[in-house]
Amino acid sequence: MEHLFTTAEDFLQDDSFLRFCMGVSEEDTRYWENWLREHPEREAPFQQARKIFDILNGQQGQLHAAVGQFRTLLGAHVANTTATLPVRGRQRRLQWWHAAAAALLLLTATGGWYQYSRYRNQQHLAVARLHDALPGTSKAVLTLADGTTVPLDSTGTGRFEEKDGTRINKGQGALVYNHSGNAAAKILFNTLATPRGGEYQVTLPDGSKVWLNAASSLRFPTRFAGNDRTVYLNGEAYFEITPDAHQPFHVQLSDGQQITVLGTSFNVMNYADETNITTTLVTGKVMVSQPGGQQAILAPSEQAVIVKGENRITVSEADIDKTIAWKTGMFEFENDGLPAIMRQLARWYDVDVIYSGDIPPLHYSGSIRKQATLSQALRILQTAGIQYSITNKTITIRNI
Q1: Which of 43, 93, 158, 192 has the most crowded Cβ, counting Cβ within 10 A?
Q2: Is 179 helix (H, G, I), strand (E, B) or coil?
Q3: Three-state secondary-structure class, residue 279
């Protein structure tokens, strides 16, 4: 159906347009991008509708909200705004999107207030965007014991073997190890590595499952022998460990830190560009050990934080939903600084980030679907006054 919309109200009442703004439908995204190219004379109300959507939706940190949820949110803003108008104003029966636009004046971000007029003056920033980046996918590289590398992606299935007889089955975005060879054979090690813009899952020989986040690697044996089970992690991973009291599970990190597990699920973040190493326990029990001897035992929903370069473990209550959101297809931010947010986006979209001027000293909260394009993900920051451009896989952040 041809859309002959001329006002922001027309766009915001259309479910296809709302799905486009949310970034949840490739079909709707293609349609509206093509529509705008064919109707450049209607770009002003089109962009106005997007601004209203982004700011109202971004205020609630719900860029992944369903269409119905957004309509409820919008209605609440309209009701609250209309209720604050003088009687004469209410008698004029302003169109609902006018009331929504008035609500934009209430937009806040930690560190200051930003009036909607500033966004109207800066609309050219989004239009001037030269490039965009697609979200990451299931992809990785498996390095076998003899140095052979096997590219992996989310498509197709297959099966191959290591020299010790270990069978490796490839599914869609996952590997499953099954050792059936000689138990006395030399233990071989494999390494599964995800690039920036990739993630992958592996089931280890003991049945334990590991989800690797972007820009991470896991080194592990093709069979577990001896008194323990030890793997080596760089980056971030979520573990679901098969219990075995006689063979405890260890995760060894690059700085010498070790996590000892008896049977549990937990998340470890150990990126080189982060200042902290965090271990977050979801179920069971783990012990975090420093090379200097300090130890901490975590209970469910606790998090151990080690500042790199310091021989001290700090244990606190964890936000489990935020910590493991990456595994369930989301970015969750809760009072996070801009550099921390941009590091996550850079790893997932395989882009670089540079700052022009001082880094804005603001903090942000919200949720973004990992399947959104980079420009869609960045719009939540734009609603808080952050100026940016994307050129040749480089994001430039400009201070407000």
Answers
A1: 192
A2: coil
A3: strand
Instruction: List Cβ neighbours of 170 (8 Å cut-off, separation of 6 or more).
Output: 152, 156, 157, 158, 159, 160
- What rounded mean pLDDT belongs to the chain? 80
- The values of phi and psi at residue 381, to 5°, are -75, -35
What is the per-residue pLDDT across 145-194, written as a single tens digit (0 to 9) for each? 999 999 998 877 889 889 888 999 999 899 999 977 666 678 899 999 99
* Sign of the dihedral through C-alpha 322, 68, 55, 21: positive
How high is the pLDDT of residue 131?
A: 61
Record the pTM.
0.71
Summarize pLDDT for 254-263 with one digit per residue, the tens.
Answer: 878 899 997 7
Is the per-residue pLDDT at 28 higher than 50?
yes
List beta partners, residue 268: 237, 279
> Which of 32-36, 203-207, 276-280 is predicted least confidently?
32-36
Strand partners, 331: 368
DSSP 306-323: EETT---EEEEE--HHHH
Which residues fall within 8 angstroms of residue 6, CB to CB, at 6 or more apart? 42, 45
**What value, to the nearest 5°, has the Cα angle with vertex 186 and ends 177 and 184?**
90
Token representation of residue 282 = 């979801």
CA distances in angstroms from 81 to 20, 104, 108, 120, 281, listed in the order given: 26, 10, 16, 20, 43
Q: Where are the beta strands (DSSP E) in 248-299?
A: 249-253, 258-261, 265-270, 276-283, 286-289, 295-298
CA distances to 246, 300, 301, 302 from 285, rounded to whole Å, are 15, 7, 10, 10
CA gap 368, 384 in Å, rounded: 15
